[in-house]
Amino acid sequence: MVQNGIDRRSFVKKMAAAAAMTAAAAMFPGIIFASEQLENLPNGGDLDWKKGPCRFCGVGCGILVGIDKGKAVAVKGDPNSAVNKGLLCVKGYHQTMCIQSKDRLTHALVKKNGTYVQTPINEALDIVANKMKQTIEAHGKDAVAMYTSGQSTIPEGYVASKLMKGAIGTNNLDCNARLCMASAVTGFLTTFGADEPMGCYEDIDYADYFITWGNNMAEMHPVLFSRMLEQKNKRGAKIIDFATRTTRSSMASDKSILFEPQTDLAVANAICYEIINNGWVNKSFVEKHCNFSKGLTNIGYGTEDKFNFNDQPAGINFEEYKKFLEDYTPEIVAKYSKVSVMDIKYLANIYGNPNNRVVSYWCMGMNQHTRGTWMNNLVYNIHLLTGKISQPGNGPFSLTGQPSACGTAREVGTFTHKLPKGVVMNPKNRELAAKIWKVPVENIPSKPTYHATEMFRAVDRGDIKFIWTQVTNPLVSLPKTSRYRPGMEKDSCFVVVSDVFPTPTSDVADVILPASWHIEKSGLYGNSERRTQHWNKMVDGPGETMDDAWMTIEVAKRMGYGELFPYSKENHVDEIYNEYRQFHEGEKHGMAPLEVLKKESGVIWPYVNGKSTQWRFNAKYDPACDNGEDFHFYGKPDGRAVIWQRPFEPAAESPDEEYAFWLNTGRVIEHWHTGSMTRRIPVLHKAMPNAYVELHPEDAIKLGINNRDMVKVTSRRGSCTLPASINERGLPTKGQVFVPFFDEDLLINDVTLDAFCPISKEPDYKKCAVKIEKV
Q1: Which keywords label this protein (predicted)?
Q2: What percent of the chain has pLDDT above 90?
């Protein structure tokens, strides 16, 4: 078939070339490939282009998928999307290539006598429902659990919550967003009383400075990083990289500042000290709109089973807070953070200068932290002290890791403590949920049960007898998987896995359910800037694949809860979303109606009177502000944000004589999380075929290690042997190594520590002690 004089093969090849150009924009400093450079590409001729969001990270890029004869043959950026304006990263352009993988799960598999047997999906769903019922009858409702995902669609997360909390009556529902965004949630809630960023991506067009806190945006959020580079070249905006290792982001930044792991807490306090000491506090803003508070210190690290922690906040005044900061002068902090006095003062001056517009960006480096909530609070402190918040180009912005970690995990509430509005501990929230779900309020438990790490500890202990995972791969992504894999293999727990491809998690399942991929179903995602995006099903899935929402509904019906799930198969996504919208009616969180979402390439909430609220808490932009002041932090009863006194405390585990190195883990631009999708895309797998361990060149020389030598990384929990990488993509500081976690054949999470932030319960994947040996 010829399209505008170009056959499809040539067309797809040109789209791949565009992908390479876009990737280069993120990977090489100073190179900008703006959207107009894509205009000369063919438009796909007679392909049927369908709109939707990207399947991967929380940026939420808009995509157009080219359909020919019922198959997805091409992807391009949606020029109507305000997020990416027609651009995509290398993963985005190639995303549909994995769904034709030869090992695609197309039919249900049931383990019988140790062997997987292909089974009609209706029979498999019968087995799942019967096993759930039998487990509840024999062991109680808290013996069953579901573990879902920030990659679940809004309808998928909603029906999971309704089944577990409304129908069965257990809070044994948590999600993998606990592993990546929980500290952002608790940071927002403790400071502002309301979750999610107050700004939007348009801040990039106004900011004079972008400060990235432990965040390799060039590889993790490349389209946003390319927008920042464009502003750097266009009007001189500056990018400051604050991190523990040198990355592609560092290379493209105006300045890179390296700090010792965990000491970001101290540096943030030192910045606040300098802001106060130099008279840079926006006194009017702080006096009108802020309170001061402190919580417990030395709060532990959650490494023991059934760890429990309840903070005890207490009000303080400005003078007490100022006195606390005397322990964090630049001169004191420089001694153990390895950040120079000059650089601490430089950062403080950027924030403190009233003429600068500053956006702070962060993601996993700040959130996957044993004091993740505190670190979020401390960056908010900087913005609150200077009044640089809730304005175009001024604000703290927590970036999300997954496509609907906001829309599903945080907004729908697929955490153990959450409901589609509010928390289970609040009687009003339970009453609202009971009313909309049409269940007795007594059905909904008032106490949370297991967060993600504790949920799998409970599986290991035998407290959970049945677990159903959807859209996630915990036996690659969990910290300290060396403990949890044997736990899930025990006969005492029945494991159900819904997925698109075989994974190490499905390898231990009793029932494997074949899930529909992204474009094989209709759905909605919510991205980092509160943007809700809808898409319609674009192609049919193979075999008996089924979307996760409908699997959950079918199991609920088989368990006797059919009257609570009266949705039609053909239109359940729309019906579920319309029901869910009832939770968020009003000016503070109103969701756009379906007819708007189907027309637009995403809509930011709160959606009020036909208009998105781009900057919350600022009366100039936010109709929910009703206190008569310029700013109203209405998440708190008194309308004031909180400036928190949070100290530096050491990591849960630090290097010593035997385990002399810090281990840091993360991602690479080519692969998505555990690699179950992107490793099945040939061009991405070829570009990055395996994980590796980065070492500093001086450490490598001391250990006699050269590039590609095999290196054993060992902790007190496990070990992993990988090829060495020296002076290639990234450069750790001396005494630190870095390993990406996408490779299921090289399981670095067997090595990591399952310590977590006691407030958010989010694990720290960035800091544990290891020894390094040449094999």
Answers
A1: 4Fe-4S, Electron transport, Iron, Iron-sulfur, Metal-binding, Molybdenum, Nitrate assimilation, Oxidoreductase, Periplasm, Signal, Transport
A2: 93
